[in-house]
């Protein structure tokens, strides 16, 4: 995140809020990253001297999740040097689908994509989508299934 992004965040999104932007970002980050309940986040913040209601944290998550996700994605766009890609067959409402998934070297999910077919066209579209979001990786690890049919 560069200085202009920081200024945009503080000026536009957090203007007129009772709590500082750092408190809001930490609370929303706890929810998104660690899958904690709103009450658990309330306790964590209280232990650090910040008294905030769990319903306020809920509103923050609803209001700021998408914004913070896009800023994080923009900031980390070039930081994923190694991808692991796989697809799996799953049943949804009685119908079989393929779930394509890409993770980084730390095991964090970069993207997922649900398709009805497993073919090179679907794999290529998923790879193209990842490339657009995160740039070109140095290494792509696959299980030599559909993705190996592509000329990477």
Question: What would a concise description of this structure say?
Answer:
Keywords: DNA recombination, DNA-binding, Plasmid, Transposition. This protein is of the alpha+beta class. 47% of the residues lie in helices and 20% in strands.
Q: What does it look like?
A:
The chain has 152 residues and is α+β, with helices and mostly antiparallel strands. 47% of the residues lie in helices and 20% in strands. A four-stranded mixed β-sheet has the order 3-2-1-4, covered by helices on one side. A hairpin with a 4-residue loop joins strand 2 and strand 3 (109-115). Helix 2 crosses helix 3, helix 2 (21-34) packs across helix 4 and helix 3 (38-47) packs across helix 4. The protein is elongated. The protein starts with a helix and ends in an 11-residue tail after the last strand.
Number of domains: 2
How would you write the strand order of the largest sheet? 3-2-1-4
Task: Give a quick account of the main beta sheet: strands, pairing sense, barrel closure.
Answer: 4 strands, mixed
Beta content comes to: 15-25%
Radius of gyration, taken over Cα atoms and rounded to an integer in Å: 19 Å
Number of helices: 5
The helical percent reads: 40-55%
User: What is the chain-wise order of helices and strands?
Assistant: HHHHEEEHE
Structural class by helix and strand composition: alpha+beta
